[in-house]
Amino acid sequence: MKPSPVLLVDRLSKSYGGVHALRELSFSVHAGEKVAVIGPNGAGKTTLFNVLNGQLAADSGTVLFEAAPITGLEPQVIARRGVGRTFQVPATFASMTVRENVQLALAARRNGLRSPLAGSRALDTREASAVLERTGIASLAERSCATLAYGDLKRVELAIALACRPRLLLMDEPTAGLAPAERASLMRLVVELAATGEVALLFTEHDMDVVFAHADRVLVLNRGRLISAGPPAAVRTDPHVRRVYLGPSTQPGTLRDA
Amino acid sequence: MTLSALLIQLLNGLAGASSLFLVAAGLSLIFGVTRIVNFAHGSLMMLGAYLAHSLIARLGGGAAGYWAAVLLAGLAVAGIGVLIERLLLRRLYAAPELLQLTATFGVVLIVKDAVLAGWGPEDLLGPRAPGFRGSIDILGRAIPEYDLLLIALGPLVLVLLTWLLRRTRWGVLVRAASEDREMTALLGVNQTWLFSGVFFLGALLAGLAGALQLPREPANLNIDLSVIAEVFVVTVVGGLGSIPGAFVAALIIGIAKALCVAIGEVRAFGIAFSFPKLTLVAEFIVMAIVLAVRPWGLFGRPPAAPPPSEQRELLKPPGPRFVLIAAGVFVLLAALPLVADEYSLVLLADICVFALFAASLHFMMGPGGMASFGHAAYFGLAAYASALLARGAPMELALIAAPLFAGVAAIVYGWFCVRLSGVYLAMLTLAFAQITWSIAYEWDAVTGGSNGLTGVWPAMWLSSRSAYYLLTLAVSGAAIAVLWRMIYSPFGYALRASRDSALRAAAIGIDPRSVRWAGFSIAGLFAGVAGALYAFSKGSISPEALSIPRSIDALVMVLLGGLQTLIGPVVGAAALTALQDTIIRHSEYWRAMLGAAVIALVVFFPTGLAGMFRRAAGLRGDRA
Questions:
Q1: Looking at this predicted complex, what is its ipTM?
Q2: A1-82+166-258: in CATH 3.40.50.300
């Protein structure tokens, strides 16, 4: 018997005024799975992520995380349940060092941020170093996040997300804006993580190389609708996907080379 | 209460709403384009009233002379507005928002003394407007024609402004600049003229509002701050930057106040409630309801994303050297009673109290990222609480219990405030402070009204100047140490995290709003400790302890010292308190001198005194 999914999305809808960003969207993600969400600009990818982590309220439909409904909960509550998130434009704490960013995430997970008098030594250093090693940014540990390059900030975000030990990690365009070499190394890192089987990964991506190299399954969104889902090979050959995603003029075979 | 009495109050309220709308619309326009909250906008209205009074006297009582005088007063104020923009604010467009605001407060102080010097302290009532001297009978009551004129004027100005902004090229540029100032500049729009233009229009509206108000209310020296507080309420309720919002909010608040006056005194459960005295509380209730439902105001839009914090400097925990030096300074200060005279000890005690007051504001402004224009609310509230408690309880107990009242007020006010951010939050804090002030001012039976409470003396063992100085030093020193410690505690990190990126904070499981709420409340509690110490050191307490100037003092201390350092607020408090003491002793026009000093500091030391020292030290270090 297949284990129950980590994430189960059931008929999720969200519209802004008259624009349907998500329409009756249903899918699931299992433990250890790497699922890519692709679709043209405006397909509803970021809206989906914002609804999943509680930043936006859905109009209708339900989201179950580990069989418990999380629809309508606040972002921090969903985060505490075990859903991590990285953003399209990296969001870090600019007035702190890389290490402090990670320490804070660790302390938040352990509920250790309430104490107003404990002193900064109360923040964990050892585990923070381990996370920094693992994400390959140990050399940046004492740098201020306000001074980091874009690619490094993406890694810091990943380190923060990992420090929270999520069981589902939502990554919005993890490789956007990175040089090809950076992309490959970042994705290698992410894949290693998922390979431990503890984290399920849901990510949006524009780079088809990344998608087809790393995703176990691909969901294709178009104007808020799920138009195709399945293993990369199947999606690649789906004529419906070719038509709406790549445009009617696309010749067969181009997707492979994209 | 009869229907006709209600009607007359309603029309009266609507007439007042029109001039309030004119001022609020001007403030909104200026803020939209320049991002400056012009604290001096109420002062411009006050100038309008005084100038109109003089011009009407000069140009005669005929209709042509009268209305020409009103128009000229408006234009003169518009000219003054442009001068302020050109001479002062233009130098500050690159400075942080709060410094610009502090500079406009310097203008408030200067204008107040200028008016005092030019027109004297007496209230000046203007003649009634020719052509509108009569009244119209409605339901058997005489409604002044002038009120009806003002009521009609509000919508007329709204329509004119809407036309100006929607249909003219200038209006398109103003709207574009409000939307995205940098993009507008990149498109080649001449910012210089645009900024001067909105200042002209905004000041013109304020000046006209003052001139038009003259037949209804005498020109007086309190218009500036009372109007600015009301205008902040209108702006927050209507939605910052929305002109129709300002109009609707002014109407709602005008009506609410009219209802309070119309209800009059009501007896319930054996207690007499005087509703007319509660007009400011009525505003508060309107504001509370609106903000609970729509945190961005009736017509306001929530910002797409919270703006990134301007504070991006690392905050290194103080090392052993810092602790050692701080301890050394403390010991030196504790030894001062051996050499200092009584006068110096009083001044030193004041400095201790204000250092704590400023440090508490720094806690919410620096790590918390929440600027407050109304921090005196908590200071003054605890001062009143200690005065009242000391009547029935030992002084020591009162000193401990009084700050808790401030803490509770901060929890209540904070619940509303932390839903907002930036300037919007700051305006709301000012509105709350003004409401607290008005309660202290109006509630004669308990607070002693404008006279306040006297005979608030410390216990016998603390009655000597040096003993009380040592107490303030010990309590303030300990409280500041606790505040500093909190900045580097896990909670302090969470507070800074919520300031840096609320999005990221929530994504790792921190609730940014609760953390900010806690930070806000802690700051209020510690301001309360300072307030309680203050009450016993002065022996009396008056509404002045809750007033806007007191709140601005704290703001100036923090900005003067510099936001980025721990000792900034302490240095700022010492500098400003000593400066005030010197100026007040030497000049009748101390407000203007203080205003000029504040402006000079902002223009010449935009990073604050501590920042300047640090830079100087850094330069020396480089050379060594």
A1: 0.88
A2: yes
